[in-house]
């Protein structure tokens, strides 16, 4: 099974890339984590609808065939770390690849969010996109560690 993080935006600060790389290498062989960064649509005179529609096309092209799509959305279902661990365990039992999708500056296309298998919220706070990548991979690693009885997570 693979966890594929599809994120709109290609450039992140060095600290975010370093943190991503650190967590990505911690995952076990049987749970691969992959980042697919897609280009942000250039801002200008385009409407928000046109921008997110263009980004949607890039996101869909980056998705693995037949994957479970989980959209990160500020109005998605809030999760605790333990609830995320339970979701991860279920995803692993289903054995399908899971794509967790992080939108661009204007979020995700509404139709894409509606079509996703799930919508989750990482926080009630508005976070920078680089921080979302790091927070997401850390929480996925923490969820794995809970399920594997690894000492990383402590109650």
Explain what the structure shows.
- The chain is of the alpha/beta class.
- The model has no long low-confidence stretch (mean pLDDT 94).
- Helix content is 42%, strand content 22%.
- The protein is globular.
- It has a five-stranded parallel beta sheet with strand order 2-1-4-3-5.
- The protein has a single domain, classed as 3-Layer(aba) Sandwich (Alpha/beta knot).
- The chain is built from five helices and five strands; from the N terminus they run E-H-E-H-E-H-E-H-E-H.
- It comes from Albidiferax ferrireducens (strain ATCC BAA-621 / DSM 15236 / T118).
- S-adenosyl-L-methionine binds at residues 72, 103, 122-127.
- It is an enzyme of class 2 (transferase).
Task: Give descriptors for this structure.
single chain, 155 residues, alpha/beta, Alpha/beta knot, 5-stranded parallel beta sheet, 5 helices
Please tell me how large the radius of gyration is.
Answer: 15 Å
CATH superfamily: SPOUT methyltransferase, trefoil knot domain
Structural class, from helix and strand content?
Answer: alpha/beta
Give the neighbour order of strands across the main sheet: 2-1-4-3-5
Mean pLDDT: 94
**Terminus-to-terminus distance:** 27 Å
Counting DSSP E segments of at least 2 residues, the number of strands comes to 5
Q: Looking at the structure, what is the overall shape?
A: globular
Compressed to H and E, one letter per element, the order equals: EHEHEHEHEH
The CATH topology is: Alpha/beta knot
The biggest sheet amounts to: 5 strands, parallel
| Range of strand content | 15-25%
Please report the number of helical segments.
5
How many separate structural domains?
1
Unreliable stretches: none
């Amino acid at each position: 099974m693979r966890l594929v993080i599809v994120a709109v935006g290609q450039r992140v600060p060095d600290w975010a890339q370093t943190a991503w790389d650190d967590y990505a290498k911690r995952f076990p062989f049987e749970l691969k984590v992959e980042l697919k960064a897609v280009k942000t649509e250039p801002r200008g005179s385009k409407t928000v609808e046109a921008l997110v529609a263009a980004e949607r096309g890039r996101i869909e092209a980056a998705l693995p065939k037949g994957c479970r799509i989980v959209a990160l959305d500020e109005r998605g279902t809030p999760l605790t770390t333990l609830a995320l661990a339970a979701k991860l365990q279920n995803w692993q039992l289903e054995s399908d690849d899971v794509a967790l999708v992080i939108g661009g500056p204007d979020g995700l296309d509404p139709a894409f969010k509606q079509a996703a298998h799930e919508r989750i919220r990482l926080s009630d706070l508005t976070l920078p996109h680089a921080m979302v990548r790091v927070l997401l991979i850390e929480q996925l690693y923490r969820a794995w560690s809970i399920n594997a009885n690894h000492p990383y997570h402590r109650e």
